[in-house]
Amino acid sequence: MILILGGTTEAFRVAEELLRQGKEFVLSTATQYGLESFRERFGHRVLNIIFTPESLKDFIAERGVSEVVDCTHPYAEEITRIAKDVTTALAINYRSAIREVEKCSELDYEKAVILENFGAAADFILKHGIKRPLFTTGSKDLSFVPLLKGIEIFIRVLPYEASIKRCHDAGVKRPNIIAMQGPFSAELNRTIIREYGIDCIVTKQSGREGGFREKVEGAKNEGIWLIIITGRSDV
């Protein structure tokens, strides 16, 4: 039995390959949206679980898991640490299939700014007169919203009720919540920038599969700021 961690494109590819090989596996995603999306293809092999060290140990024992394949997001550091620690303690195989992120040093764009967290991003936005930033960093951490009072914040999230509710509860106006399923081309990013009057995109180094290059191209072609969050998302 193989346990796949993550609701990413990499997780889908690994699951597809295991399915083709006829191997037993279970896939765990941390979101309800991921559960619904992956179950369309893989059925009840897909579970919605947020693991702690103890619950992961118990799950591995109960299911007879012999290998854990880590396909989580590059910034999901906590579950990766848990998976490594637990597999080491239980002496079972851990394999990383986490996507590589693109190096910011290779962007060659004068309006690209590399910052460590959302607090630094909020400071930059306020100091540089940015009025209509588009955050493409998800809905799990919206701690920057109260720091940007008076700024017309836009957020692009997956079209799932919980994501939209988190944004609205945090104080983001409903018309400013762009609920869409990717992937997003550079041209679609440019269209969104123009339609909403966006003057800055805030993103993470999400790698090729996360549409990072398309966001860079969209920002460059429209001549707007691009803020890249490289560290943890805490303010």
Write the layout of secondary structure elements.
Elements: E1 2-5, H1 9-21, E2 25-29, H2 32-42, E3 46-48, H3 53-63, E4 67-70, H4 77-90, E5 93-96, E6 112-115, H5 118-127, E7 133-135, E8 154-157, H6 161-170, E9 177-179, H7 186-196, E10 200-204, H8 212-222, E11 225-229
Parallel strand pairs: 1-2, 1-4, 2-3, 4-5, 6-11, 7-8, 7-10, 8-9, 10-11
Helix pairs in contact: 7-8
Strand content: 15-25%
Q: Any idea what the radius of gyration is? A: 19 Å
CATH topology of the largest domain: Rossmann fold
Any idea of the CATH class of the largest domain?
Alpha Beta
The CATH architecture of the largest domain can be given as 3-Layer(aba) Sandwich
The helical percent reads 25-40%
Give the number of domains.
2
Report the CATH superfamily of the largest domain: Vaccinia Virus protein VP39
Terminal-residue CA separation: 40 Å
- Number of E-type strands: 11
Sum up the overall morphology in one term. elongated
Average pLDDT figure: 89
The helix count comes to: 8
Query: Structural class of the secondary elements?
Result: alpha/beta
Strand order of the largest sheet: 6-11-10-7-8-9
Ranges with pLDDT <50 over ≥5 residues?
none
Q: Quick one: biggest sheet?
A: 6 strands, parallel
SSE succession: EHEHEHEHEEHEEHEHEHE
